[in-house]
Design a protein that fits this description.
Strand content: 35-45%
Number of helices: 1
Number of strands: 5
Order of helices and strands: EEEHEE
Length: 76
């Protein structure tokens, strides 16, 4: 079988398996709680989309950030 040389999908850690792509969760950033949507699950963190609307494509690209699983809380 051929090797993929880094093109493998990351496997979320035990903390990350509690979350799913597309799920709305709470994060605390700059001492403020904010609802975000998970875009992608990585090994130790998740890429989340902030709920801020931009007027052009460049601003919309900047509405994503990487957050460690320990800083993400499920919304009940």
């Amino acid at each position: 079988m051929a090797k993929t040389y880094g093109n493998q999908e990351p496997i979320p850690s035990a903390l990350g398996q509690k979350f799913a792509v597309g799920e709305t969760v709470m994060i605390e950033q700059d001492h403020k709680s904010e609802a975000v949507v998970i875009v992608r699950l990585l090994t130790n963190s998740a890429i989340v989309s902030l709920d801020k609307s931009g007027s052009n494509e460049y601003e919309q690209l900047n509405n994503k950030t990487v957050i460690n699983y320990s800083r993400i809380k499920k919304i009940k």
